[in-house]
Design brief:
The complex is a heterodimer of chains A (about 260) and B (about 900). Chain A is of the alpha/beta class and about 260 residues long. Chain A contains 9 helices and 11 strands. A 7-stranded mixed sheet of chain A has the order 1-11-10-4-9-8-7, sandwiched between helices. In chain A, β2 and β3 form a beta hairpin. Chain B has 31 helices and 4 strands. Classes of the chains: A alpha/beta (about 260), B mainly alpha (about 900). Chains A and B meet through α2, α3 and α4 of A and α14 and α17 of B.
Chain lengths: ~260, ~900
């Protein structure tokens, strides 16, 4: 692993993983991943398809149980204290799934209720987000009829509803049009500006470059590079783009 | 086209294999390979059952139709051939009676299965015709005399028509004159003219070859064959439509993809039909065998029977394939979810009716002499006679039957093609365009709904589950009423039985719907897992909502109960009614937990699902029986047991919940309350068996009780060891809290003994106070008591039992296994309370109260000292004092 930059250990960390490993039978999807996400930062988790990004995120959410290693969010173990962790985290899955027989409006009410919000509070928080995404007119449809993009927008709203400390976004702009992508990016920036932390996975390099403070590049289930964008670029492909870095480290991992 | 279909069958097969491969992960592959034949066997068995139901249903429908509109002249069933019930013949046309009698005579000479009952029946008909008891031949089973009147005769009646041909002929041989009255009344109520009705409890086996049909017989038979094929097809369709539900509303990726190729809609449709047929072929064989049995039983030659069986089976299945393809295409690809839900709701309902009719029809004739009567039964149903007519009569040849099937299927195919061609473009466009349709039913003011609110909405919108919970029970009852024609034949119910029926109603609906309810949560698990609430608690809320919602009908029945039957004791009746309703909720929670466990299986096993269904039905039967007996204490005990089982099942769900999301996450090896409950069951079963054996051989109840206790205890401990080991728990001594604590075993025991002393003081006080009450003395006199029947020589046995065996084994089971089992996921108070309640429930009512207190104390000392020796000492001290006191008083 290439560790570019130093001094990260002194920063207050909202998310911390040590030796996180997950194997499915013979197959090792994630092999000893270490992560450090500083409070208030936007952190990208970059990697090609099948690198283990979603598996890692599912372990952070306490949905998958790590085969080895630990992950902590706000000092809480992601699996053992998963209920407490979820109070602090807003999660956007890659492929959101809803109940077929509930409408978007009812789903928002449901999610708010599950986080212990009153209905007034739920709607006070949801309305600006929904307006931003321009899905207010679709809220009375059954969720089963929503397009992929609409589902993703709705799930984004769910992730923000309880005003979490940390947003964990799995491919947040996957399947969104350029317009909505920009809205999503604005939300992420806004969230970070108000002191929140964001950890998002993506395979879109420009997005990582635009949004994030620090980046972890993952390939074949291992972290192959970590640091700020500038540090990573300077140490691995001086004068090159993030794309050059990405190809350099992921190809090296493939050959290894 | 065939190539396309074949490739799709192959693809489906492979995709099944692939899904299985990725899901099973670390599961032993050979075990799966071994299970395949079992699954196939189960499927075949299921298919046979299904078709039997279907055939029975069509027979039933046919009967109803002929009863209402007239039709085939001959109607006969054989029920309870040896029971000696009454017989009633009723025909609009007196000639038909003559024909029947002739048929009976010929039946005597024709080959085929024959019992002494058939001969008796023959004699009966001869007697009926000639108006006398036959002098020679077999002895008639009944007293028989003739009365010219219609009305309820003293012995029996033989009523001939009084002039007009419209007037029915009645022949009745009466053993239960009330029943005959009822039949006459029913027959009269159903309509005087054109009504043909023969027998309700047993009649005459019909040989259709010898009975010319009235009217245009040929047309009737052809019509019947068509109706029968269509009905069987319809029944299968209902059954196969329900699983389609999982695909509703999802984009049908295949159809747009196929339309990208230069093939016509017609080709695509035809290939889909062939694919459906490919997935249904397994059903064809049992169906063909069944239909062949029908026609053979009805008297057809073996080869023509096989031919007809094959032709009708294949025709029915082809019909199913065509209809299913059309529906699938229209529903999956095109229609809105709402409409699809409606169709599935209807299919569930109709499938349920098939099942109910099947149950209702098969129970009676199949009890005695299964094979002989099954054959004669098939022969005598209308279905059997119709098939036989189609198979080998002079009227219709097998060729006609085959031809009918072909015409039917071809017609359906052509019709389906028209539908498909018309909807292909529209439906496709909608499925490609994402299908936006407004839903007027959505509540625009919905806010802040929790798990309960969500489920209440689901009850409104999820048609399949709603049908199972709220419509099917009504249909069930309705079918029973129709089948038994009148409430008048029902026996007088006691209040307790009405309460049991209320429980049965709710329990049965829950068993029917529990899996569908659990499956409805599958799409939501990912969402639920993002909330800061434990998954198990959400599931519990969900299942609790349904369990309470299902109380609708049981509550109505309980409210109506006082009007149907008067309880012998108002307070007892009230308690019973409350227990019945509480039982529905407890049972619903149990069924929900079982279904949730099934949802979490890495490898969904059909056999296991069937087994858990059976387990639930058995549990339901036991509870319903205890309510129906009307003994309040027994019902309380069963409620406690049911509650404990529900709690234990939810504990398993809780431990397995992480596996719902992560199949590789094996739960930690833990002591479970379920193991404790199994140990309790083994303990009592073995105890009863051994005690009975000893008593039978030796006659000493004391020795029997002692040995029973010891063997029961040993068996329970062995069971515990076995289940713990199978769970990977090996440190039994520490798990059962038998290890030495820091305080030392002696000190722990002394602590326990002190608590036992306190309990014993209470126990003795209870005995002294209770003895003053008449009710207690009566109760005690009615309870078999070891101590009161003991004589001098058995004091040793009693002492050994009370001071050594009982404390040791009962504490191991109730405190060591049950309480510690619950404790692994529960707080100490709940665990102590549950195990103490169970402990008290396992004792007779006279001692339940002090024993409950003892259970609480023993549980408390275990929690306090962490040593089971403390509980054992507590129990032993209590027993020594209380038993000693009782012996001294006696």
């Amino acid at each position: 692993m290439v560790r570019a930059g130093a001094g990260s250990s002194r920063v207050d960390r909202i998310l911390e993983a040590r030796g996180l490993t997950k194997s499915f039978g013979e197959k090792e999807a994630v092999r000893g991943v270490d992560l450090d996400v500083a409070r208030g930062s936007v952190h990208a988790f970059l990697g090609p398809n099948g690198a283990g990004k979603s598996t890692t995120i599912l372990m952070l959410m306490g949905i998958l149980r790590p085969t080895a290693g630990t992950a902590r969010i706000d000092g809480l173990d992601c699996f053992a204290d998963r209920v407490e962790v979820k109070r602090r985290v807003g999660y956007l899955p890659d492929e959101p799934q809803f109940y077929d027989y509930l409408s978007g409006r009812e789903l928002i009410g449901f999610v708010g209720g599950m986080h212990g919000l009153s209905k007034e509070e739920t709607w006070r928080r949801a309305e600006p987000i929904l307006e931003g995404f321009r899905i207010a007119d679709q809220l009375d449809e059954f969720a089963v009829n929503y397009s992929h993009g609409t589902k993703k927008k709705l799930a984004f709203a769910f992730a923000l509803l309880h005003e979490p400390d940390l947003l964990i976004l799995d491919e947040p702009t996957n399947g969104l049009d350029p317009h909505t992508t920009r809205i999503a990016q604005d939300i992420v920036r806004d969230f970070a500006a108000r002191g929140g932390s964001v950890f998002f996975s993506t395979h879109l390099l420009d997005q990582a470059e635009k949004l994030c403070d620090r980046v972890d590049i993952v390939a074949q289930g291992r972290i192959v590079a970590t640091g700020t964008i500038r540090e990573v670029k300077d140490s691995l492909a001086p004068g090159g783009t993030l794309e050059d870095v990405f190809f350099a480290v992921t190809q090296a991992a493939d050959e290894a | 086209m065939l190539g396309l279909a074949w490739r799709r069958i192959l693809n489906r097969w492979r995709s099944n294999m692939r899904v299985a491969g990725t899901q099973k992960l670390s599961v032993d592959k050979t075990a799966i390979a071994r299970r395949k034949p079992v699954t196939a066997l189960a499927l075949v068995g299921f298919g046979v059952l299904l078709l039997f139901w279907a055939a029975m249903m069509s027979g039933m429908a046919w009967r109803v139709a002929t009863n209402f509109w007239g039709g085939v002249a001959v109607e006969a069933t054989t029920y309870l051939p040896d029971s000696g019930g009454p017989i009633v013949l009723r025909h609009a046309d007196p000639e038909n009676v003559e024909r029947l009698v002739e048929a009976a005579e010929r039946y005597k000479e024709s080959p085929g299965p024959r019992t002494s009952t058939d001969l008796r029946r023959y004699a009966l008909f001869v007697a009926a015709r000639e108006g006398r008891v036959p002098e020679d031949g077999p002895e008639p089973p009944f007293d028989f005399d003739i009365d010219s009147g219609h009305g309820p005769g003293s012995g029996g009646s033989f009523g001939s028509s009084s002039g007009t041909t419209d007037e029915p002929v009645l022949i009745s041989i009466d053993t239960e004159s009330a029943y005959v009255d009822l039949l006459i009344e029913t027959a009269t109520r159903r309509g005087r003219s054109g009504f043909r009705y023969l027998d309700t409890r047993f009649g005459l086996p019909t040989d259709p070859r010898t009975i010319p049909l009235s009217g245009d017989g040929r047309a009737t038979v052809v019509l019947a064959a068509v109706a029968f094929t269509a009905l069987v097809a319809f029944a299968i369709l209902c059954m196969t439509l329900v699983p389609l539900r999982g695909r509703f509303g999802r984009a049908d990726w295949e159809l747009p993809w196929l339309f990208g190729f230069p093939v016509t809609a017609r080709t695509i449709f035809a290939s889909r039909v062939v694919r459906q047929l490919g997935s249904l072929w397994l059903v064809t064989l049992p169906l063909a065998v069944l239909l062949a049995t029908f026609s053979y039983g009805a008297g057809a030659e073996i080869w023509s029977a096989l031919g007809v069986g094959a032709a009708l089976a294949f025709g029915a299945l082809l019909l199913v394939s065509v209809l299913q393809t059309v529906l699938e295409q229209r529903l999956v690809a095109g229609a809105t979810r709402k409409r699809a839900e409606r169709v599935v709701g209807a299919a569930t309902l109709l499938g349920g009716i098939v099942a109910v009719w099947g149950f209702g029809m098969t129970a009676r004739p199949l009890v005695p002499d299964v094979f002989v009567h099954a054959l004669s039964f098939t022969a005598s149903t209308s279905v059997g006679s119709v098939i036989a007519a189609a198979a080998g009569t002079a009227l219709v040849s097998p060729l006609v039957a085959v031809g009918v099937s072909i015409v039917l299927v071809a017609g359906a195919f052509a019709g389906a093609l028209v539908v498909v061609e018309r909807t292909a473009s529209g439906g496709l466009a909608r499925s490609l365009g994402g299908g936006h349709e407004g839903h007027a039913g959505v509540d625009r003011t919905a806010h802040g709904i929790g798990m309960v609110g969500k489920e209440l909405r689901a009850i409104r919108r999820d048609r399949q589950v709603a049908t199972m919970l709220f419509v099917l029970p009504i249909v069930l009852l309705g079918v029973q009423v129709v089948q038994h024609a009148s409430f008048g034949v029902m026996p007088d119910f006691t209040f307790a039985q009405v309460c049991a029926a209320a429980f049965g109603f709710g329990g049965y609906s829950t068993v029917l719907a529990s899996n569908a309810i659990a499956q409805s949560e599958r799409s939501g698990i990912a969402l639920l897992s993002t909330f800061p609430v434990p998954l198990t608690r959400l599931f519990m809320r969900k299942v609790a909502t349904w369990s309470v919602a299902v109380l609708l009908f049981p509550a109505l029945i309980v409210v109506a109960a006082p009007f149907l039957a008067t309880p012998s004791n108002p307070v007892g009746g009230l308690v019973l009614a409350v227990l019945a309703l509480g039982g529905v909720v407890a049972f619903g929670m149990t069924a929900g937990a079982v279904a949730m466990l099934e949802l979490g299986r890495v490898e969904p096993g059909r056999m296991r699902a069937a087994m858990s269904r059976l387990f639930l039905l058995a549990l339901m039967a036991v509870f319903a029986a205890s309510i129906a007996q009307g003994q309040v204490w027994n019902a309380v005990v069963q409620t406690v047991v049911l509650g404990a089982i529900a709690a234990a099942m939810w504990q398993r769900v809780e431990l397995r919940a992480p596996q719902l999301l992560d199949p590789t996450s094996e739960p930690e090896p833990t002591v479970l309350a379920v193991d404790g409950l199994v140990a309790v069951l083994v303990f009592f079963q073995v105890q009863v068996v051994v005690a009975t054996m000893v008593r039978l051989s030796d006659g000493s109840p004391d020795l029997g009780a002692l040995l029973g206790f010891v063997f029961g205890g040993l068996a329970a401990v062995a069971t515990l060891v076995g289940t713990f080991w199978s769970r990977g728990v090996f440190d039994l001594v520490s798990r059962l809290a038998l290890a030495r604590t820091s305080a030392g075993t002696i000190r722990d025991a002394a602590f326990g003994a002190r608590a036992g002393l306190a309990c014993a003081a209470l126990g003795v006080a209870y005995l002294l106070v209770a003895e003053r009450f008449e009710a207690y003395r009566e109760l005690r006199a009615g309870t078999p008591d070891l101590l009161s029947c003991g004589n001098g020589t058995s004091v040793v046995a009693v002492a050994l039992l009370a001071i050594l065996a009982a404390p040791l084994f009962e504490e191991l089971i109730f405190r060591g296994a049950v309480q510690r089992g619950f404790r692994s996921t529960m707080g100490s108070r709940a665990a102590i309370l549950l195990s103490a309640a169970l402990f008290a429930a396992c004792h007779p009512l006279v001692s339940a109260l002090p024993v409950f207190v003892l259970g609480l104390a023993a549980g408390w000392v275990l929690e306090r000292r962490g040593s089971l020796w403390a509980s054992i000492a507590c129990h032993a001290t209590y027993n020594a004092i209380v038993v000693g006191f009782t012996l001294a008083v006696n």
